[in-house]
# Entry
Amino acid sequence: MRRQKGIDVPDGSADQALLNRRDLVLKALALGAGAAAAAALAPAEALAADGDVVHVGQLATTGTGNTVFMGRNTGGGAGMDIEAAKHDAIRARAHGTNQSAVYASHDGDGYGVYSAGGRAGVRGVSLGGGRGVEGYSAAGDGIMGEATAANKSGVFAFNDGSGFGVFGRGGVAGVLGLASTALATGVMAENADGGVGLSVVGKTTLQRSGVLGVGVGDKYATVTVPGGVTAASMYLVTMQGNPGTGVFVAYAKYFSATEFRVYFNKACTKFTTFAWMVLD
# Structure
């Protein structure tokens, strides 16, 4: 190796090989430095402590019982406002038994969770054998549904398998249906395929039915019907005893807006009762 004008000039093949090895080492060092710089700029996982700054794209973790992120607004604004243009705004996962991926509470007269969506306000899915949506209240309704659109339901449920569309259980009634107008139906049961429309196990109580007595000498009895009757109402009458030899019910007919009458073929000679029911 000789020096010419401040530059090392190889004097032979051995000197040339030495220079080649030096160039390779320098290039490797430069490449390693560039990779280290790129790794430093890339999102990384950081072990977070109280008061640490969290950078965008960085994953912050903690092994303590502290909260990783906390937001509080003591004024009139939101505690946290998050928006995503093309993805979920918030994703949350939890792994603790009986814990929630998202837990929200409201200490005043507000909602624990309020959500609105074009397809559904809330969708609940169970990946195991649990419930899709579960509601509980110690003092109010467990779940309330409301709809104002025509021919829609406040609560709509279906099961196309071998289960129930709606299952209700209660200390007073399993299911209560209330109609808000005179033209509405409290409970509607239908089977358009020719099957059973209504199946009842146990006793049946009908408000528009009852038992009425007739005395000796009576040729008719007047029945007052809750909810009233019309000329198109249908009356079913069955004697519960013997009104006398040769005495029987001749017919029943409309009498007034709240009454119908049961007529006998002749005056009763014994006191007895009859059962009645109105259908319309």
Summary: Residues 2-41 form one domain. The helical segments are 13-41.
